[in-house]
Amino acid sequence: TRRVVVVGAGMAGVQTAVALREQGFTGPVLLLGAEPHQPYDRPPLSKAYLLGAAEGSAFEVDFASLGVELRLGVEVTGLRPGDHEVDTEAGPVPYDVLVVATGAVPVTLPGSEGVPGVHLLRTLDDAERLRPVLAEQHDVVVVGAGWIGAEFATAAREAGCAVTVVEAAGRPLAGALPAEAAEPMAAWYEESGATLLTHARVDRVEPGEVVLADGRVLPAGAVVVGIGARPATGWLRGSGVALGPDGSVVADDHLRTSVPDVYAVGDCASFPSARYGARLLVHHWDNALQGPRTVAAAVVGAPSRPYDPVPYFWSEQFGRFVQYAGHHASADTAVWRGDPADPAWALVWLRDGAPVAVLAVGRPRDLAQGRRLIEAGTPLDPELVADPDVPLKSA
Ligand code: FAD
């Protein structure tokens, strides 16, 4: 029997182990994770956990009864495909099949590394360090109005902190959503009592304050940097596994890498999407749930369709449930459903009449139906799409 070694015990790594057993793999499975903690889920870290409303977010997976060996606190430092081994501080580990699921690491703000009071928000340890910041109601400066920045700002306002969000672009979520979708979201910051500074750049961070490029000085009991994440693939350099310009493992449509017997999945891997005609690097929870099923199928040799999901993401910010499915880059038309000044609305992007992406704010049904319509490529009548009282599936 072949031995599967999974590197990275986050969502994608854990789900790979689960999917292997679900798909009938009976051989040994070893899960190696750098963090010392029992494997856990990240979304609660910027939500309930931060506010002290949840005590932890460990996955409810019984590794022992699955027959999955867990080795935690073990960092993998290299891969030698010729020997079918990975290297760790504790020595080499042999594999027959290797699954790379090392996720991503947050991008740091140059010059802010090591400055006291500067935080990232990726790990349980990060979130644990941030809990007292909220509990003690420090003045916080959030750098970056992306998903993480918005969720942290939400929690910090809820905790009663004074919150200033510094964003280099002209609007929130500039990297993720087109202008028409992100513009209404700017108002959410002010409404919650946070201050959103757009077109604002950090010049430097000093203990207790953030100095902007235009000279403004913001008092900061704590600084939270949320300016993106990059695949954690440095350990693969020189191994022969092809990495893309974005640092992702370049996987194929069954999540195989350029090296035989090595797969990659989750936040660390990009894959070709025939649906969107582009290589996608998806940093969303759902991708770390779905991708492992494709990997497991390939490992057990079960027939499976190419991995080509409609990417899905949710966020909870400023009292709203925000959901996005698809990939709007190829759209030619955007259709509003409802008024973005209202608590609930949606935006549907079409290409040649067929939906390619949907953004739903407080309209989970639009998201669920839109996602299925995107998968099916069903053309819609834009006039009916624009009527929020008509269910999307009837448009
Ligand atoms: P990770 O979760 O990053 O897991 C990778 C693991 O590999 C880590 O534990 C890491 O320590 C380990 N590792 C890395 N390098 C090595 C090495 N060399 N050796 C051994 N182990 C290694 N998505 C949503 O869709 N909705 C949300 O609301 C949402 N909220 C989020 C909130 C936060 C605070 C964060 C950080 C992310 C959120 N996400 C959300 C994104 C989602 O959590 C990620 O897409 C998901 O965690 C990706 O899983 P992964 O297993 O690929 O990577």
Automatic annotation (TrEMBL):
Its cofactor is FAD. InterPro entries: FAD-oxidoreductase/Apoptosis, FAD/NAD-bd_sf, FAD/NAD-binding_dom, FAD/NAD-linked_Rdtase_dimer_sf, Reductase_C. Residues 312-395 form the Reductase C-terminal domain. Pfam families: Pyr_redox_2, Reductase_C. GO terms for cellular component: cytoplasm. Keywords: FAD, Flavoprotein, Oxidoreductase. It comes from the Bacteria. The keyword Flavoprotein applies. Residues 3-288 form the FAD/NAD(P)-binding domain. GO terms for molecular function: oxidoreductase activity, acting on NAD(P)H. This is Oxidoreductase. The lineage of its organism: Bacteria, Bacillati, Actinomycetota, Actinomycetes, Kitasatosporales.
